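Postdoc handover notes: sequence design on the structure in folder B. Input tokens:
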């Protein structure tokens, strides 16, 4: 077996996002959100304010977390490796993850 600390699997977050069930569900929700913003002017204003707030908070959080992330990088790699192994097992047991949401 491979040494967990030296193996560098694809980022688990990217793997999960690329699962057909997850990506097709995201596409569906994104489409509904966009259509709602387009067709309801009052909600559009609320959504745009919320989006700006999320972007500002996200940028501030990243700036403040960057030093901590850099210090913890080796631990993050190890956690990603273990999460990747766990995701392999989940994918084996739940074949539904490999189907788009319209087929589930």
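Designed sequence:
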């Amino acid at each position: 077996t491979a040494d967990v600390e030296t193996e560098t699997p694809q980022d688990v977050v990217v793997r999960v996002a690329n699962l057909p069930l997850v990506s097709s569900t995201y596409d569906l929700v994104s489409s509904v959100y966009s259509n709602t913003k387009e067709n309801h002017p009052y909600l559009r204003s609320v959504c745009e304010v919320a989006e700006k707030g999320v972007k500002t908070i996200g940028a501030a959080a990243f700036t403040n977390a960057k030093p901590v992330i850099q210090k913890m990088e080796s631990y993050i790699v190890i956690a990603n490796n273990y999460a990747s192994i766990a995701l392999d097992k989940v994918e084996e047991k739940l074949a539904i993850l490999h189907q788009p949401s319209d087929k589930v």
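Context for whoever picks this up: Confidence is low (pLDDT under 50) at residues 1-8. Don't rerun without checking with the PI first.
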